[in-house]
């Protein structure tokens, strides 16, 4: 599965862009996406850093209300501007909106604590050994950057695989993962002891 942004770059060793390995290019309605496997070592390490709040990863706590989608998108876009990568704002903002919406819809959609910039120094919200803060249905947005790459992840308390449906271009919903696939270099998901992370990789120009 190759996105519209195919590149080959060895900075993080990610190589050609593709989605999670598995025979789901022509998935039937509501087909679970296989868990990402055989990732390049540097990408695997980056996903681990994302979940454990290493390497200057920043985190945002998603509140259980529809306005959280907008708040999460604004958080991501403001970080991109701070990091000098405003050209990624549209793509990352769209993908963050889709992934947060999916997490709120399918994971129970509640969160303990406050929204805002819960950076790694605030361990009460972001304990590396407890990435969801012991909140039964917490949702976190995480961002980490190693130019020219940006890695985005949504952590939630559900271990169920994301489900991919054939898009209905008339319906208002059901196109989320297709949009994630189209606007990122590569994406996937990983099971965690207390849930999962769905991640997406972007490359700045």
How would you summarize this macromolecular structure in one to three sentences?
The protein is of the alpha+beta class.
Give the key terms.
205 residues, Heat Shock Protein 90, transferase, kinase, two-stranded antiparallel sheet, alpha+beta, Anti-sigma-factor_SerPK, single chain, 5-stranded antiparallel sheet, 4 helices, ATP-binding, ATP-binding protein
Textual characterization of the structure:
With 205 residues, the chain is of the alpha+beta class. The chain has one domain: 2-Layer Sandwich (Heat Shock Protein 90). 26% of the residues lie in helices and 20% in strands. It is built from four helices and seven strands, in the order E-H-E-H-H-E-E-E-H-E-E. The protein has helices at residues 41-52, 67-82, 89-106, 176-183, and strands at 31-32, 58-61, 139-146, 149-156, 163-164, 186-192, 195-203. Helix 2 (67-82) runs antiparallel to helix 3 (89-106) and helix 3 runs antiparallel to helix 4 (176-183). The longest helix is centred in the middle third of the chain and has 18 residues, at 89-106. The chain starts with 30 loop residues before the first strand and ends with a strand. Mean pLDDT is 76; it is low at 6-10, 15-28, 110-129 and 169-174.
